[in-house]
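Fold it.
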Amino acid sequence: MASGSNYKIPFRRRREGKTDYAARMKLVHYDKSRLVVRLSNAHVTVQIIDYAPEGDLTLASAVSKELPKFGYLGGLSNISAVYLTAYLVAKRALAKGIDDAILDIGLKSPIRGSKVFAALKGAVDAGLDVPYGDFIFPDDERIRGEHIAAYAESLDDDELNEKFSKYLERGLNPVDLPENFEEAKKNIDEAEV
């Protein structure tokens, strides 16, 4: 613990480990909207945010809880849901005339193929102009959920009912997740978001 009369207490959000102010200031100085991706254990939130001195302005937002309205029956925090949520927010941003942004992943580590880069791919595929390198995206098969479908195929009925009970309650056999993903993506394209 630092001592003395010149000790400066860090900002509350820095003390709580919620904000890296040095990284935030770098993003703010680009003078572009930020594509903000925030992951929790249960849901995903993706927003397009502009900086303003009196407080940030949210221009477009989507939460993975909205995906069932578009026919998606899979998990709401898996890589497929992250992609679709970003795809949805990018469609909303484009409808409002916002056509470019920069990625803000907060305190998440930039690991190649991770969920935050699945969100980036969803936004880019929807038509939002975001700078990126191709090598960071997860494989398309993984985004569609083919790895989940393959795992579900390898299970017997008892294991399937135990591990995928929420999917089955919503009426989706996990083997059919890639088809459900494509259907939900098509529904987002056709909807007036």
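The mean pLDDT is 94.
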